[in-house]
Structure formats: structure tokens, C-alpha cells
Amino acid sequence: MRIVTKSKIEISSRYYEPFKILKGKIASHIVFELVHNEDKDTYSLPYLYGNYKHELEPISLSNKIVDSVKKYLDDNLFSLEEKKLLLSELMPYVKSFGLDIINSITSRVKLASDKSRLSNGDHIAELVKTIESLKQMNLIINNEFVSLYTNLTSHTDGVTHYVSTKNKMKTKEQIAEIILEQFRKTNCRANHIVMMNVFRHTVIPKLNPKESDLFPDAVNFLINNDYITYEDASSGPECFRLTEKGYENIYNDDFSFESQPIIQKKKIPTSDFPDEVYRDIITTLSAYGKDLEKKPKVYCGQDEEGLRDHFLTNLTGRYEKTTATGETFNKEGKTDILLKDDKGNNLFIAECKWWTGAVGFHSTINQLFDNYITWRDTKVAIIFFVDNKDFSNVLGQIEVEAKRHLYYLHFISISDNSNFKFIFRQKDDANNKVQVEIMFFHFPNL
Fold first, then answer.
1. CA 395/CA 351 separation, integer angstroms
2. Do 163 and 206 contact (CB within 8 A), yes or no?
3. How far is Cα 350 from Cα 207, in angstroms, rounded to an integer?
4. Model confidence over 261-319: pLDDT tens digits?
5. Residues near 360 by Cβ (< 8 Å), separated by ≥ 6?
6. Nearest alpha-carbon partner for 303 in 327, 333, 330, 328
7. Percent of the chain scoring above 90 in pLDDT
8. Separation in Å, CA 274 to CA 280, 286, 317, 342, 403
9. In what order do the strands lie in the sheet with 333-341?
10. Rounded to whole angstroms, how far apart are CA atoms 137 and 116?
11. Quick one: which of 177, 239, 391, 440 could link to 418 by a disulfide (CB 3.0–4.6 Å)?
12. SS3 382
């Protein structure tokens, strides 16, 4: 059941009719094409029928609803204050968008699971898709209306109120806090999104020009430290998505970036490349790979080079005075990922390959050790992309096959069930040890 606070202007006001029209524009049932019941000459929501097929398109439908409200407000020449009044009274209904239908469908799914009284599993799957689409629409519409309302409140008679230039210049970390504040305002949980338009309309306009230039750095700061992820328009709405780590911290009153043990972006000499930074690189690549596994639309059809570039992007600019490049000549060949300092010294090398079996596994180690790494290269990784359906069987071979290799010294540990840590030796120097992280990601052909 929809629970909202009754609007003051809904009782008796010259705004009653406009408000009633606006409420109708954000009623969730209007996104469905109703089914005509010929026996009773009535119309019903389609999900009530056993042959229901999910057809909602969250992005286009959300945009249509938001644009319809904007057009109505503009076409009827409401003043700025009138628009703010109407939107403020509308917000409780915006927040509850789709919840009544979500609850109704959820009850039907539960009934089907408990008593098997609905038609079949395919029907239930269609209902679940509709639930997820309505949840996504709720997020998109809420974000867009918050952006619209905030943009209006930042104006008086059409004049934008910017932050005073007398205020102290904001740092990258402070701008990052402002970005996270947008997630707090909409009570986001982990995996919830805030649309990019919210930041274009409500955050960036309030920054001075120098602070605006820092906005991308603040975004990358949050992404690199796993507070948010960015999703471009190619796979859905352009937005930022809150991670588990971000959710754990944004509602903590004691949280501040100054108190977080974040590895600083600084120059790292080759002769003293800290283990904690090596671990940070591995963690970064691993986190991205696991996230990519969830996005078949991104990885399907990609070759080694295409997938390699995804991982390479996550190291670009992560540390000050370093460069991360792909297909870079080193020693006797071109390695897939190479991180260098500003003096041209190697910091980290990684090789990327599609998994082809045990023979290919040994061949890749030989290629890396015999052709690419020098005596000074002691921290490397091998990234395997696996399209086998029996992924567990592949992982079960790794420790055994690694021990058979000529350069193998010992096994350290396994993490995330698919990252294997070893110590190997250099080809021509048995006393010079090399840390090797062999990482596996499951990208099955669909």
C-alpha cells in the first residue's frame, strides 16, 4: 500500500488541479499497457495474467515521466516559487514511485514460491524482471527530481547563487565528500545509483572554476579507492554506483578521508617498491575483474587486447609520476601491461592471456620470464581470461601445474578463490626471487 503524507495544497488551493495532473504523471501504473477484460469490460494491469511478458524499459520510461513533468511546468508558465512549491509537495509521491506495484508483484512471487499456485517458473521470472525494472525506475526518477528541485532552489529570479569566492578553496577530498553527500541525500544503499545529471546540475555549478577542474580527480579518487563505480551511457544510464565500501562509510558520522588509510599517489622508486602498493595494484585489478564478470555485455566478443585495455585503464593515473601502458616493448618483446616511474624504471609487469589449458599456462610463464622481465623486475602478474564453463576444474589445476614449472620455488596463498600467489625465480639467477600473482577471471561465451 502506498504510504505518503497528504499534501497541503491537495486539500484546498488554486494549485489543486495542477498538482493532481502532476501526480497522475508519476503514477507507476501508467507505464503499463492495460489488458482489456471483455467479460467485464474492464482494464487490468498485465502482470495479473499468466501469460505476462516483461516489456518495461526503465531508462526510456523514466526519462519520459521526468520530461513530461518538466514540460507541464514550463508550458503553464509557473513562476520559480510555484515550481518549487509543486515539486516539494510532489516529492513524497516521487519517493514512493512503483512501491505499490512492487509490493503487489512481490506478494504474487512469494505466493508462487510457497504454494506453486502461479503458472510456471517462466512467469515468475518475468515478474521478477518487472520488480527490478521498477526499482531502477524509482532510483532514476528520484535522482532526477532531486536534481531538478535542487537546481531550482539554487536560483532566485533566475540568478544562480554560487559559493562565495571568499571561501577557502576546496580540496579534491572535500569535493569527493560533496559527491558522496548526493548518495546520502537519497538514502542510497550499496549498489544504488545517482545519475550523472544530478552532479551536472547540483554539484558542479556550485564549484568555482578551479574546483570544477578538480571534479574529475575527485571522482577518480573515489573510484580508485572503491567508494563508487562509474557507468557510462553505453550499458545503461550514465551514473555513479555506490559500492559496499562506500555504503559502510557514508552514514558514519566519524568518517573522513583524512582518517582513512588510503595509499597516497606518490612516486615509488624501483629500488624500494613497497609490498603494500603491489598489493594495492593486485587488489585494484582483482576488484575490477570480478566486477567485469558480472557484465557480459561488456566482455562478450572482446579479444585479449580489448579486455587488457579494461584492466589497464584502472592503473592509469593511480600513482603520481607513473605511467601505465599496454603493448610496451621491454627486454625482448612487448608486454601487455607495464607500469613505469617518471625515470623510465619498471615498477610492475602483467601479461594477459585467454586460458587454453596446461600447455598454454606453462607457455605464458615462459614468455613472461624469458622475454619480458629483467633482473630488476620482481613484482609481476599473469591474468588469465577463462571461457570454459567448468571454471572450477581450471582452478583445480593451477597449483599442480605451477609446481611442475622449472622456475617454481613455492606457493604462498590463494585469495578470492581464483588469485594464486607464488614465488618464482629468475631464468638465469636462481637466487633472485619474483613475486607472481596468477589471476583468473571467468568470461564464458554466452
1. 18
2. yes
3. 39
4. 444 454 454 445 667 778 888 988 998 888 888 878 777 777 888 788 878 877 776 77
5. 353
6. 327
7. 22
8. 10, 19, 18, 17, 27
9. 322-330, 333-341, 346-354, 379-386, 433-442, 419-425, 408-415
10. 29
11. 440
12. strand
Q: Is 171 left (phi over 0), alpha (psi -120 to 50) or beta?
A: beta
Q: What is the CA radius of gyration of the chain?
A: 27
Distance CA 260, CA 254 (A): 11
* The three grid cell numbers given for residue 14, joined into one nine-digit string: 488554486
Please give the full DSSP string across 103-141, using - where no structure is assigned: HHHHHHHHHHHHH--SS-HHHHHHHHHHHHHHHHHHHHH
Asked whether the beta carbons of 172 and 214 are under 8 A apart, the reply is yes
The dihedral through the CA atoms of 9, 10, 12, 13 has a sign that is positive
Say how far apart CA 446 and CA 443 lie, in whole Å: 9
Angstrom distance (rounded) from CA 382 to CA 364: 8
How many CB atoms neighbour CB 221 within 10 A? 20
Fold of 172-259: Arc Repressor Mutant, subunit A (1.10.10)
Task: At 119, list the grid cell.
Answer: 503458472
33 CB neighbour count, 10 Å cutoff: 9
Position 114 scores a pLDDT of 63
Residue for cell digits 526519462?
A: 63
Query: What cell was used for 176?
Result: 569527493
Question: What separation, in Å, do the N-terminal and C-terminal C-alpha atoms of the chain show?
Answer: 40
pLDDT tens column, 241-263: 898 888 888 887 766 665 554 44
Contact 83, 152 (CB under 8 A): yes
Q: pLDDT > 70: what percent of the chain?
A: 84
Please state the domain extents for the chain: 16-160, 172-259, 273-442
Q: Is the Cβ–Cβ distance between 186 and 147 less than 8 Å? A: no
Q: For 46-91, how does the pLDDT look when each residue is reduced to its tens digit (9 = 90+)?
A: 888 878 889 898 888 888 999 899 889 888 878 888 888 888 888 8
Dmax of the chain from CA atoms?
88
pLDDT at residue 393 tops 80: yes
Structure confidence by residue, pLDDT tens digits, 260-274 = 544 445 445 444 566
In the chain, what are the helix, strand and coil shares in percent, each to the nearest 5? 50, 20, 35
Confidence (pLDDT) at 273: 62
